Amino acid sequence: MSFFKKSDSKKNQSITVTLCHVDGLPLPERSLCKIELNTTQLNIDGGGTNFSIDILQIKDAQFKVENVPAPNGGIWATHYLLISYTNKSGQLSSVTFKTDITTRKPKDIKDTKKIVDELTLRTKNSDVVEL
Known about the structure:
This protein is of the alpha+beta class. 15% of the residues lie in helices and 44% in strands.
């Protein structure tokens, strides 16, 4: 019998994914960006520049899929990560990323969904109004 409580190691883990920049940062479109969500912020590393968004600034996160008919008769799917946040000037801003067609992996899609799920959970909990 153990007297020590097991620690929840998942609480301290970060989620990392590499996606292509679409819009919202001073980077060229299609720049590969490493996106990491940790306990306090969302870090974006792309084009030789690091960006950070504090979790408390994030207002919404969405995962979108765009299906386009492929020339071979199938469907070509592009997956998007959309994040809305309050910038340092207090204005609502957004940033958009998409899966890289050439290196898309099922793990990237899964981890992108995990980031959205985690941010959605955290933003719901931050909408509490104290009186």
